[in-house]
Specification:
By secondary structure, this protein is mainly alpha-helical. 85% of the residues lie in helices and 0% in strands.
């Protein structure tokens, strides 16, 4: 006789009691697909960086120069998704699938318009951006072409992001996770074709990623709009603009968008601080960031699961469970990233050698990774706690906290230390800031839950 797995999200919606082992089981089940998807993205970046790295330090530096800007645009796409997916998870937690589908239809149109606007902006600035970032003449053209191709793919990137977020709001982490893994595999294959067979270099890397997004948009759309039991489109239901829901989506998304601008503008500033250190430092910085992501991207996978679980728990009006789940999943994320940080410390040289054959870049990048390894557990606390807050629709205060952390701690420290001790100073500043950020997020989580308990007793 086949034993069926328990649906812990359904138990949560019904009001059933969940023990600690059951909570951990739910967290692991929902986190593993998103963690694997995030890790696959990093493996893809490893392969991308390795392929481009074989073209020389200038090619790596060209992509590294605009990396913070691509993160900014990608982050803005993500924030527009959050405004709708959080509401969907809360409606589904309350058992209101009709309202969740109403959110879906509004989100489809709204995010499509937003991504088109970003496409126009990106295409307009692609020639000037590398110059504004202080890039050397030898890498400006390649950096600009890479950013242009990235910008042209934004509507497909947005759709995939939105579809994954909405599927995750139903508790379906598996489908978007598997499709993200497939996207990464396609990207590697397309990159090989465009970089080596077509000899397009840096532009080929961008084309490989863009075409992967286009291909994956088809099965991602089918999974959401046709096959999702809760959210698939019905002929009887039409697009209706609900002002209250749009305002709430905007209220949730705006702080996250502001946070992305703040965080990525700080990354741009950090890139500008690194740029005068030369192409080797730019390349080492960029590749070390890619290498470090193998440790912190699982945290983002756990955070995505946290947003869905907390949203549904709040929608089901499970206040006690919400508080307990918030701490369990945050500590789980810290543990996972702590193990990853320890592994990164000892494997740093190997990780860098996988990305580039240039010995000077390997040595410098590995030293940076060993500094950053000490920040990973507290970095995990800030990442997963952010997912918890977003599931509750609480995005303003965490965004302000990130602003303070980046601009009052990291950037001033990096600006002071970089001219004195080079790239090492930038990464010491980064490590210090990530530890500070994790501490203030844990304090915020503790204080917020204390206030909610007092409110319930009144």
């Amino acid at each position: 006789m086949v034993r069926m797995k328990k649906d812990y999200l359904e138990m949560m919606r019904r009001g059933d009691a969940l023990s600690l082992p059951q909570l951990l089981t739910m967290i692991v089940r929902l986190s593993i697909p998103t963690m694997l998807a995030q890790v696959s993205f990093i493996i893809m970046e490893y392969v991308d960086a390795s392929m481009v790295g074989r073209l020389g330090a200038n090619a790596t530096a060209a992509i590294g120069l605009v990396a913070s800007s691509t993160w900014l645009f990608g982050g803005l796409l993500n924030c527009s998704t959050i405004g709708f997916s959080v509401q969907s998870s809360q409606y589904l937690g309350a058992g209101d699938e009709v309202s969740a589908r109403r959110i879906l239809r509004q989100g489809l149109v709204g995010t499509a318009l937003f991504s088109t606007l970003l496409l126009v902006i990106g295409a307009a600035i692609h020639r000037f951006l590398p110059v504004w970032l202080g890039g050397e003449a030898a890498i400006v053209h390649d950096a600009g072409m890479y950013f242009l191709i990235f910008a042209l793919s934004l509507p497909f990137n947005q759709f995939n992001n939105f579809a994954a977020g909405m599927l995750q709001s139903t508790g379906n982490m598996r489908t978007p996770g598997l499709l993200d893994v497939l996207l990464c595999a396609l990207n590697v294959g397309f990159n090989y074709v465009f970089i080596y067979l077509c000899h397009l270099g840096v532009a080929g890397a961008a084309l490989g990623t863009a075409l992967s997004e286009v291909v994956i948009a088809v099965p991602m759309g089918v999974a959401l709009l046709v096959k999702s039991p809760m959210l698939h489109l019905r002929k009887s239901e039409r697009l209706v603009w609900n002002r209250a829901e749009l305002k709430r989506a905007f209220r949730i998304a705006l702080p996250v968008g502001f946070e992305q601008v703040v965080m990525c503008s700080a990354q741009v500033m950090q890139t500008a601080i690194v740029a005068p250190l030369g192409s080797v430092a730019i390349a080492a910085n960029s590749l070390a960031v890619t290498a470090e992501a193998l440790c912190y991207m699982p945290g983002y996978g756990i955070a995505a699961a946290a947003t869905a679980m907390i949203g549904q728990s709040i929608g089901a009006k499970r206040a006690d469970l919400t508080r307990r789940l918030s701490w369990v999943i945050t500590l789980f994320g810290m543990a996972i990233m702590g193990v990853g940080g320890a592994a990164m410390y000892f494997a740093a040289p190997v990780m860098m050698r996988l990305l580039t054959p240039v010995a000077e870049i390997v040595v410098l990048g590995a030293a940076m990774l060993k500094i950053e390894a000490f920040a990973e557990p507290l970095f995990g606390a800030s990442i997963v706690a952010t997912g918890v807050f977003r599931g509750a629709g609480d995005t303003l205060v965490p965004s302000v906290m990130n602003l303070i952390s980046m601009w009052a701690v990291r950037i001033p420290l990096a600006a002071v230390m970089a001219p004195r001790i080079g790239l090492k100073g930038v990464w010491i500043a980064m490590c210090t800031e990530l530890c500070f950020r994790g501490i203030i997020f844990l304090i915020r989580l503790y204080q917020k839950q204390g206030k909610e308990q007092k409110r319930e007793r009144i």
